[in-house]
Amino acid sequence: MLRKGILFFVFLALIAGAISCSVWRQLGKMPNDKELSDFVSSEHFNQDKQIFENRRPELIEAMSKRIDMGTMVDFFLNDTPHRVPEEPLPEMKPVDIKRFLEPTDSVRFVWLGHSSILMNVQNRILLFDPIFSNAAAPINFMVERFQPPVIRLEELPEIDWILISHDHYDHLDMETVEFFKDKGARFAVPLGVGAHLRYWGIPEDRIFEMDWWQKKSVDGIDFHCTPSQHFSGRTGQDMKTLWASWSVEAEGVKIFFSGDSGYDIHYRQIGERLGPFDLVFMDSGQYNLKWREVHNLPEEAVKGAKELRADYLVPIHWGMFELALHEWYEPVVRSYQSANTEGVNLLTPMIGQVVELEQPNAFARWWEDLIE
């Protein structure tokens, strides 16, 4: 009996150790002193504080003062109904990969939920902010997905480029990154994020770190790293890595991906310098008036799309994780209302639906069937 008891506690210790090791690896790795010293040429890096900053540096500190312990208690104990759907959201499964891969002179994409986008840009295959693990947190039972991924990592087509907007868990996923260690996919990331990728095994020659307004042209695609208004860190507001949005252009087709961002003048600036855009994906969910500096309200996302001079708007950052106090469907309801009012063409595909810009698309208001 004593021997069994000892073995049981050894087993628990091993499990705890494994969990601890996994959590530790999930934290990633911040840029070292040498790497930080390389960032001094960036206009957005505060050399004295050794952190990246927004156009208005005071915003994050002011926001943090409003998000007190009461806000945290409200988040965990607030009984607002429907923050999580009561049943799985409708999806197109299996994803029609054969159709997705057909040659195209335009853009074809699949929304995978939240901010994860699988995209065919004139026959180059891109992934934006992919997260395939069970949770958007270092611990598996926190911030769990509403439902399993509509497509497994192993079912994905060969990926040419993976674009990451910043290092928060719901955008930079260790499990997904490690899957691509031995693949050929290259990573385009903001300054500093490469430290995480190298720690998780991605070779240096497949990592391209960029500052705001920097451009990289490869494989017939222009990648522009563009501004956003947010923050970074996997253990708090470390701000040692940059956050960004992305502009992608291939033979006249232009796409904008906002990453996470609050509303500011950068949308108009990007529209003036790089627009107009055929298609924009805009942060439209997980917002709150207390943290509107770092996440657009849906109406602000629509306004930003107009300033970007977008032909079509796709609201993202909703439909997969509970990271705010609003109902799960509120982002798309408000986006739909605002887009109609402002005359913006809104695309609202189901998860897993293949969307083609060069062909007419029909979108049902599928969320309405799930609202009581």
Which homologous superfamily in CATH is the superfamily of the largest domain?
Answer: Ribonuclease Z/Hydroxyacylglutathione hydrolase-like
Summarize the helix and strand pattern as letters.
HHEEHHHEEEEHEHEEEEEHEHEHE
CATH domain fold name of the largest domain: Metallo-beta-lactamase, Chain A
Proportion of residues in helical segments: 25-40%
How is the main sheet built?
Answer: 7 strands, mixed
CATH architecture label of the largest domain: 4-Layer Sandwich
Strand content: 15-25%
Radius of gyration: 21 Å
The CA-CA distance between the termini, in Å, is 55 Å
Number of helices: 10
CATH class of the largest domain reads: Alpha Beta
Summarize the structure.
It is built from ten helices and 15 strands.
Write the layout of secondary structure elements.
Blueprint: H1 2-26, H2 33-37, E1 45-46, E2 51-52, H3 58-66, H4 69-77, H5 97-101, E3 107-111, E4 117-121, E5 124-128, E6 161-163, H6 174-179, E7 186-190, H7 194-199, E8 207-210, E9 215-218, E10 221-226, E11 245-250, E12 253-257, H8 266-274, E13 277-283, H9 298-307, E14 310-316, H10 330-342, E15 354-356
Parallel strand pairs: 5-6, 6-7, 7-8, 12-13, 13-14
Antiparallel strand pairs: 1-2, 3-4, 3-15, 4-5, 9-10, 10-11, 11-12
Helix pairs in contact: 9-10
